[in-house]
Design goal:
The chain has 15 helices and 14 strands. With about 450 residues, the chain is of the alpha/beta class. The longest helix has 29 residues, at about 355-380. The chain is globular and about 65 Å long. This is (spotted green pufferfish) hypothetical protein.
């Protein structure tokens, strides 16, 4: 009877018998587009530390602790997610019990949505997030006793690799490497672009960030070795030579499908097979940073003008999250909503547009596949045969490892930036916003 959650119309002050606090401004979701949550793992950690400290404080021991939000509906649902997840994690409450309390007093919460630029196609509610947190606790993915919040916040930044662990020790999602590590100069690349104002026929210089980071494969190798990453899976077209990983002892696989789209059954099977047979952790990526110019028409006082934005596009969100979600459903029996929720808590913006519906459609089939897989493993254990289980896929190759095979011409041709620049989709644009706002917050 000490801890309360309240939705208020305005900020309130603490009194002699109650201590009130709010994190609406302190823990703010950094959106890509129309998305607004759930707050990431670091923010959840910081909230837990703050609340636990208050509950254990001697000076507050006789006071009621009231966590409140006075923000809009987006702030309200994030606050409810924070206090609800805390209750699941620290108060031995089930997601359903917490959800029931949050809905008392006729409270309602808007659902979370994806980070796409289009109409919302899939709703993610608070209960999905609470269940995801509960599953993460059960499987040991969420353990704040060993969680390094500074490391999480360091490596999620574009200049430090844009890395996030989805399942610690198993799946690492990251932005795709480039042929060469460098700081690309945004001003020099865009010096010929101007904002055209049709109303006055004047031009103004565009403002661009001073530069943005591109990372070569070698930049990731020390981190991969330290964290027992043995396998890299590339889901985008070739932008670097896979030998730069394979010649240093890593396995490397290419499973390309179009950005913003969903994988076919063959790609899903191959991905699962690779992950089921990997010796260590698997690092998965799609396309890395590519500069671009986007023009958005604006109509003001019957005069057509254009707003021009300069972006660069790290990725590792849509395609990467979709396939990792498939593995989580097969091997941990997460629901599609739980998988999407947990992946977004770890790596905001993941799984976009139709990919959400794809994951949901695959749920029951992957559950059945997982049951068969586990039964097979159990039988092999009973028979004393603990071997790596192969699913019969015979067309997976490890780039650079088959010395007797002559590479095809197309295998030698690395991906050119211009190939996909004209076809940029939602997944590309999201990471651009992340890098831009990080540069802004650091200045």
């Amino acid at each position: 009877d000490r801890l309360y959650f309240a939705i208020l119309k305005q900020k309130v002050k603490s009194t002699a018998d109650r201590h009130c606090f709010c994190v609406d401004e302190e823990l703010a979701y950094e959106n890509f587009y129309a998305d607004f949550g759930p707050l990431n793992l670091a923010m959840f950690y910081r909230f837990c530390c703050k609340l636990t400290k208050k509950l254990k404080s001697i000076t507050l021991s006789r006071k009621k602790i009231i966590f409140y939000t006075s923000g809009d509906q987006k702030k309200q649902v994030n606050a409810a997610y924070l206090i609800g997840s805390y209750a699941v994690m620290n108060l031995n409450m089930t997601p359903e019990e917490v959800h029931s309390l949050l809905l008392s007093k006729n409270s309602t919460y808007i659902p979370f949505r994806d980070a796409s630029f289009g109409t919302c196609m899939y709703n993610l509610n608070i209960l999905d997030c609470l269940r995801a947190v509960n599953k993460a606790l059960q499987y040991g993915w969420l353990d704040f006793s060993s969680f390094d919040v500074e490391e999480y916040e360091h490596y999620e930044r574009a200049e430090n690799g844009d890395l996030n662990w989805i399942i610690p020790g198993k799946f690492l999602a990251f932005s795709g490497p480039h042929p060469k590590s460098k700081i690309e100069n945004g001003k020099s690349r865009a010096r010929d672009f101007r904002i055209y104002l049709s109303s006055s026929r004047n031009t103004r210089d565009l403002f661009f960030p001073s530069g943005y980071p591109l990372h070569a494969p070698e930049a990731y190798i020390p981190y991969f070795r330290k964290h027992n990453v043995t396998t890299i899976i590339r889901l985008n077209k070739k932008m670097y030579d896979a030998k730069r990983f394979t010649e240093t002892g890593f396995e490397h696989h290419d499973l390309f499908f179009v950005d913003g789209s969903t994988p076919n059954d063959s790609i899903v099977r191959k991905f699962l097979n690779i992950c089921e047979n990997a010796e260590g952790a698997i690092a998965v990526h799609c396309k890395g940073p590519i500069p671009g110019i986007f023009l958005f028409p604006v109509v003001a006082e019957s005069i057509d003008s254009f707003l021009i934005f300069f972006f660069f596009f790290p990725a590792g969100l849509g395609r990467t999250g979709t396939l990792i979600g498939c593995y989580m459903m097969k091997h941990y029996r997460l629901t599609a909503a739980e998988a999407i929720a947990w992946i977004r808590i770890c790596r905001p913006g993941s799984i976009i547009g139709p990919q959400q519906n794809f994951v949901e459609e695959k749920q029951n089939g992957l559950w059945a596949d997982g049951d068969v897989f586990r039964e097979k493993v159990l039988k092999e254990r009973e028979n004393g045969k603990m071997t790596r289980i192969l699913s019969g896929v015979d067309d997976i190759t490890i780039n650079g490892c088959n010395k007797n095979k002559s590479p095809k011409k197309e295998e030698l041709e690395l991906y050119n930036d211009e190939e996909e620049q004209s076809g940029l989709t939602q997944g590309d644009k999201l990471r651009a916003l992340k890098s831009r706002r990080q540069a802004r917050s650091a200045s």
